[in-house]
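Run folding on both entries below.
>entry_1
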Amino acid sequence: MRFRQTLIPTLRDDPSDAETASHRFMVRAGLIRQLASGIYTYLPLGFRVLRNVERIVREEMEKAGAVELLLPALHPAELWQESGRWDVYGDELMRLKDRNDRPFALGATHEEAITALVRDEVKSYKKLPLTLYQIQTKFRDERRPRYGLLRGREFIMKDAYSFDASQEGLDRSYTRMYDAYSAIFRRCGLSFRAIEADSGAIGGTDTHEFMALADIGEDTIVHCAHCHYAANLELAECTDNGNAHTDKATMTDDESVRQGTPSASGSRQIVETPDVKTIAQLTRFLGIGADRIVKSIALLADGLPVVALVRGDRELNETKVRRLLGATTTELMTEQHIAEKLGSVPGYIGPVGLPDHVAVIADEEIRGMRQVTVGANASDRHLVGVDPERDFRVSHYGDLRTASPGDRCARCGGELRFDKGIEVGHVFKLGTKYSEAMRATYLDDTGKSRPYIMGCYGIGVSRLLSAIVEQHHDEAGIVWPTEITPYRVHLIVVQNKDPVQKELAESLYDGLRKTGCEVLYDDRDDRPGAKFADADLLGLPLRVTVGKRASEGIVECKRRNESESFELEAERLPDFVRNL
C-alpha cells in the first residue's frame, strides 16, 4: 500500500487524554480515533492489525473444533428475563425500547442468545458435543471508560459456547479452549498468565482468566514463587499465617482496659472510646496492634443482613463473601440499614449481641483468636476481652480476606508475589446455569430430556491490540510482533524526486508485492527525518530505505527491534524478506 493512498494520520505529540503507552502510541500512529467516550474508530492500520488478530483466533478455533456463526447484537428483553439476568446484570447493560415500547438490550454478552438458538435447533445427544463461536461488537455502559481500547463502551469480542451431554464432555471442551487460548496469545506475542478467577455476572464454576502482564493492568495477579498456583486477587487463597496473641494477665485491671486487653478474670468489658471509629484510631487510642482487633463489616447479601469479620489489619474480600454464601450480590449497608437491621452505628459495629436474623460470618483467622477488641454496637464504645467462641456465634467460617504482601501460598506455603495484568481472555464452565433457566434440553440415548452442560469462552479482540502494544513498544513507538503487524516491510524512498531512487523503490515495491509480501511504501514528498520517525512510530518489523546508494543497487535495512542497520543488494531483498 502506498502511503499517499491510505489514511495514516500520525501525530508528533502525545494526546492530552492518554494515560498509557498503548493509548498514546495507537493514537499517534494513526491506528484509532475516538468518536465518543469509550467508543473508537479503527483506522486502516488499526483495522489491519485487528484482522490479523482475528485470523489467528479463527485458525486456533478451527483447530479446536469450534464453528463460527454470527448472532444478533440487539436482544429482546425476554431472553434476559428468562435467564434471570435482566434485573441483576446492572447498569452496564445498555437498554432501549423500540417504537412499540418493547424493551431490548445491546448485547454485552451472548449466553442467552446462543442458548435460545441451540434450544430450538439441537434436540438430540447425537449432535453433541457442539462448540459455536462468533467475533462481534459488544456494548457495555462502562462507568469510567479509560486507557483507550482497554476499557471501552463498544468493543470487539470473540465469544465461544460449548454444549455437552456430560461433565466429562465439558471438561474436554474446556481443555481444548484453554489450550487454544494459550496458542492464540503466544502467537500474538504476549507474555501472559492463566489464573484462577471469579466468574462474576457470567456465572458458572471453574474459570480461568488469561492476563497479559503489564504495569498499567487494572487487575492484580497473585502467584506463588515455588509452585504453579496463580489467581486473580479477588480469588487468591489465603492461609492462616498464625496469630501471635498472648494474654497479659499480669497487668492491673486499669492497664488492661486502657490497652484493650482483658482483666485477669478474662471477661469482656466495655471501654469508652469517644469519637474513635477507625482501626487506625482504635490502635492509637488503646495502644494495641490491629491484629488484636476484629473488624466488622455490615453487608446486604442478596438483600439479607450479614456481618463479616476479619482481623483489623486485613481487608474483606466481597467476592469471597459471595462465594461463601452463594449470593449473587453484596453491598455495604448504609447508615440507615445499620440502624434498622443491626441496631448499631457506623464505626462501632461488632458481632456481640446482634439480632438473631443477622448472619455472622468470619475469616478463618478469627477462629483461632482470643481476647480481642470489637465494636460494642453503641456510639463511642468498644468491647475488649472478647472470645469469638464464647461471646458470639459464627454461622460460617471461610477464607474471606484479600491476599496481601507477606502472605504464604495456601497450596505449598511458598512466597506469594503480586503483579499487574490486563485481562485478555476468560474461560468458564457454566454447567446448566443457562440451560436450566431457559429450558434448553436435548434427548439422551434413553429418550430422557436433559439440560445441556455448557461452557463459555471469551477473548477481548480489540483489547488485545492495546495489551500487545503495552508490552511491545519503546520510547520511539510500537514494535509489532511479526504475526500481527499491519505490514511486514516499511519501504522508504529518501528523495522522491530523485529518478534513480524513485525507480529502484518502485521496482522493489512491485517485486515484494508479487512475492506476497505486505509492504507499506512511503512515497510522500516529505523530509527523510519525518519518514524515519513515522517508521519507528508505526513499528513495522523491517524498514528498507532507498537512498544515496540506489545507483549501486544497494539499500539500507533495519529491523525495528534492533538498533543497527545494514546494507543489502536490492536484488537479494525479496529472498531476504521471504526468509524472515
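>entry_2
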Amino acid sequence: MNRRLSVVVRCLSAILVALGCVGSLPGAANAVAYAQIEGTGSTWSELIVQQWIADVDANGIKVVYTGGGSSKGRKDFAQGSTDFAISEIPYQGVDEQGNADTSNGRAFAYLPIVAGGTAFTYQLKVGNDLVRNLRLSGETLAKIFTNQITNWDDPAISKDNNGRKFPSLPITPVVRSDGSGTTAQLTTWMDSQYPSIWRPYFGKAGLTSYYPKKPGTRMVSQAGSDQVMNFVSSSYGNGTIGYVEYSYPVNKDYPVVKVLNKAGYYVEPTQYNTAVALTKATFNKDKTQNLSQVYVNPDPRAYPISSYSYMIIPTGANDPRMTTAKRQTLADFLYYSLCAGQTKAGPYGYSPLTLNLVKEGFSQIALLKKADPAVDLTDRDVRSCNNPTFDGKDPNNNKLAQIAPQPAACDKQGAGPCGTATGTNTPSTDGGSGGTGGNGSTGGTGGTGSGDPTTGGGTGTTGGGSGNAPAAIDPVTGEAITPVSSTTGGGEVYADPSTVLSADRPGDKKAFGWLSGFLLIGLVLIPGLYVAALRRRPTGGV
C-alpha cells in the first residue's frame, strides 16, 4: 500500500509540476509575469499616482512611488537607482546650480502621464470670513511672485475684482524650497507671457525649478506641494498665496484664484478648463511639451497655466535595472494610467489626458517592446482605451471638451465677480450670490447670503436645491451625477466597473480556469489518498 501510495503521489506531483510549467510558458494564454518597479519624483502628480498604484495592486502589479520633487526624480533615474521617474520638466543639460542635469547616458523616453492646472491657493480674510472668489490677472500674479505687488489693497488686485476693496494686509508669497516641477511650470509660464516682469527678477531668461527668494522680502519657502498647502491654510496663514497642483486645495477644501485667460474670462483649473486648454499642447522634436499655445488658448473655458507631467521610462535593451517582468509591469501600469485611471483624474483635482497626449504615451510604451520583444502589448492601444476625453471608436471626438461648461457671465472681465466659491472642483455659475456662506456652488440662486458680499455672504442660506447651479457632471457620460445609494444594506459603494483594471490577455481566463481546476483537484486528492492509505495499513507488529 505504501508503495502504491508513493507511486500515486509521485504521479500527481508530476502532473502538478507539468501544469505549473504550462502556466509559465510564453504565449497569449499565459498569465502576465510581473516584478515590482520603483520610482521617485513629482509631488505635483503624486496624489493621483498613488491612487493608480492602489488600483492595480490587486492585479499583481506592484509599484512603489516616492515624491521628493521632480529634480530628485530625474537625478535618481540618472543614477540608475529607480526604474522610472516623474517630472514636470525634462532634463536641462545643466541645472541652475551648474550641476549636470542629464540621464547620464541612460536611454529613456518622456511619456505624458498626469495633466492638471497649476493653481494659486491663498488665505485672505475680511474680518473672520475667508474670501473664496478671488480673481487675478496673469500680470498681477507675476508681480506678486516677483515682489512688485506686496499688499492685498493694491489697486491692481481691486481692478481684477471689478472694484472690490481688500484689507491692507501684507502679501506673503509661499514658494517651493526644493527642486520642483511646479516651480518650473510657473516660471516657464511667466518667462513666456511676462518676460519683462520675470527676467529682471530672475536675472536671465528661462525657467527654474528652484524658486529664487530675495532677502528682505516676506517670501516663504516650503518643501513639497503638501507643505505649501499646509502653510497657506494654517492658523497663521492669513495674507499668504502659494502655487500647487489644483488637487491639493480641492482635497483641502480651500479656495484658489480665478486666473484671467486670453478670452477675457477669469477661470479656475477644473478638469474641464484644463482639458480644453491642453488641446493646444504640441510636442518639440525631442518629445518635450510645447505649451506656448496653451497659455493663449482663445477658448473662454481654457485655464492658461495648464500643463502635464512626464513619466521618464527606460528604453535601453540592456538597461541593467530592467527585466521582461519589470517592463511588463511598467507597460501595464502605464496602460491603466493613460486609460481607465484617467477617469479618476477629475474627482482628484486633475484633468484627464487628452487624445493628443494619450497617443504620444502609447508611442512611448511601444519602445518597451522594442527594447524587449517578450513584452506583451496585446490590446494595448487607443481603441481599447477607456479614457473619458475620447471614444476609442471615434478618437478624434473630444468628449470632455464638448461637455465642458462655458464660463458664467459674472466671470467675464468687467463683470461680477461671481458669488460661487472656488476650490470645489465644480463649474462656476451666475447663481449663488451668497458665495461660501450661501453654499452658492451647490445651491445656486437659493444661496443669497446676508453677509458682506466681499467675502461671499458668510451667513447665507443653502439654496434648497432650487438654484440654477449645475450638478456635478460625469466626465465620461456628460450626465449629471446622482448620489450612489447602497443596495446591500451595509453602506458599501461599488466601484464603477469602467475604472477597474483588467490585465488579462485573450485566453488568460480560459487557460487559468482549467489550470486552477487541476491544481485544486490535486491539492484535495493527495491528502485524501494519504489518509485512506493510513487507514488501510495493518496494525500490530512491524
